[in-house]
Amino acid sequence: MREKIIAVVGRPNVGKSTLVNRIAGARLSIVDDKPNITRDRIYIEANWQGKNFVLIDTGGIVEGNDDEFVKNINSQVDIALGESDLILFVVDAKTGLNPYDYDIANKLRQTKKEILLVVNKVDSKAQDALASEFWALGFDNMHLLSALHGDVGVGDLLDIITSDIEIQKEEKIEDKSIKIAIVGRPNAGKSSILNNLLNQKRAIVSDVSGTTRDSINEEVVFEDNLYQLIDTAGIRKKSKVDYGVEMFSVDRSIKAIKDCDVALLVVDSIEGLSDQDKKIASIVEQQGKGLIIAFNKWDLIKNVQTHKFEGVIEKEAPFLNYSQKLFISAKTGQRLDQIFKYAKQIQAEREKRISTGLLNKIVNEAYCLNPPNSIKGKNLKIYYSTQNKTCPPSFVIFINNKDLIQDNYKRYMLKKLRENFGFKGTPIVVNYKQKGDK
């Protein structure tokens, strides 16, 4: 059985995301006093006393507004309403009954779904009187609570919305999905790629940078393999990021990189690889994640061969030579299916294990072919090599003295490991230890 889906809706700034975070027990949706912070549909799994369900956090509904951005938000809400089994209609006790509340109430009744009216920001029993005016909306039941403080009404609401859900026996299910975080600068086409891959308008697409605020997760099956796509907010230069909503959005994007298996770095082909793209790529490398650099808007590039374009990139950013390069168009769908194939290949490389015997053979051969220069009359000796981790592949090489190995020789050894074992698309880690190191 699929889990019960509950859509949380209402006009802007009534506390929908605060309520979602309170129920989920974590700050999963961005909360701010400014309206229209939540723009896309955010799906969050929740549990109450052993009963599992799914919350959909939505953007604030504004009826009768012809602004294209508002229309997009409303269309996202409509999709959430269509998917839901229950609707939580959230209103604000402090600002009181608003004409928009009547419009939203009428809109929700047309869905023929079960609706619970939730009066938020009732911070004490003394404020119960503030809620009485909301009976005018015509609903049979009304639930008073304080999402911010959580001590008024939230538990009672959870008892009601989970009353028809059976307690599920806990089963540990191994997550075999490959998690792909779609990252990059604002307006590079990340949300367009997500929508095209899912064949639906899952994320709002706009020419205005910073449209995506929260990270959006979606699962998709491609050629019998399960993938989890994570669309993220654009990451601008730190000096240009304002404190508040944008900073939280960037933090979410970086967290998505930490949680993923493979990062899809979306680059605007017309602008080329920028310094900010390189910084984002370095974050991916530092986190030990697989990396696909997807040059979007390739349909607009004329008379340029991909291998020549790759050559330029390799000269500009040699530290990214290990990454997979892909030339795509979110608009036309060109080569988008290759994203899944590359991600699967890279994940296999991240999980690859090299036998100790073979590893020592290759390391010793590399040492004999090109022994390092002596330093102050002392020679570097390599005793033993082993792989100690995967994801990313990590190796330990035991030597006589760490002061005798220089950076250029470390790069040489790294190159030899890649030449012999591949590891295309994933960073690899090589640590050098001398006797006595822990």
Largest sheet properties: 6 strands, mixed
Instruction: Give the CA-CA distance, first to last residue.
Output: 50 Å
User: Structural class given helices, strands, pairing?
Assistant: alpha/beta
Which sequence of strands runs across the widest sheet? 2-3-1-4-5-6
What does this entry look like structurally?
With 438 residues, the protein is α/β, with parallel strands linked by helices. It is built from 11 helices and 15 strands. The protein has helices spanning 16-24, 68-83, 99-109, 154-161, 190-198, 245-259, 275-286, 306-316, 338-350, 356-369, 407-421; strands at residues 4-9, 42-48, 51-57, 86-92, 114-120, 142-144, 178-184, 216-222, 225-231, 262-268, 290-296, 324-327, 382-389, 394-399, 429-434. The strands form 3 sheets. The protein has a 6-stranded mixed β-sheet with strand order 2-3-1-4-5-6, sandwiched between helices. Helix 10 packs across helix 11. The longest helix is centred in the first third of the chain and has 16 residues, at 68-83. The radius of gyration is 26 Å and the shape is elongated. The two termini are 50 Å apart. The relative contact order is 0.09.
SSE layout and pairings?
Elements: E1 4-9, H1 16-24, E2 42-48, E3 51-57, H2 68-83, E4 86-92, H3 99-109, E5 114-120, E6 142-144, H4 154-161, E7 178-184, H5 190-198, E8 216-222, E9 225-231, H6 245-259, E10 262-268, H7 275-286, E11 290-296, H8 306-316, E12 324-327, H9 338-350, H10 356-369, E13 382-389, E14 394-399, H11 407-421, E15 429-434
Structure summarized in a few sentences:
The chain is an alpha/beta fold.
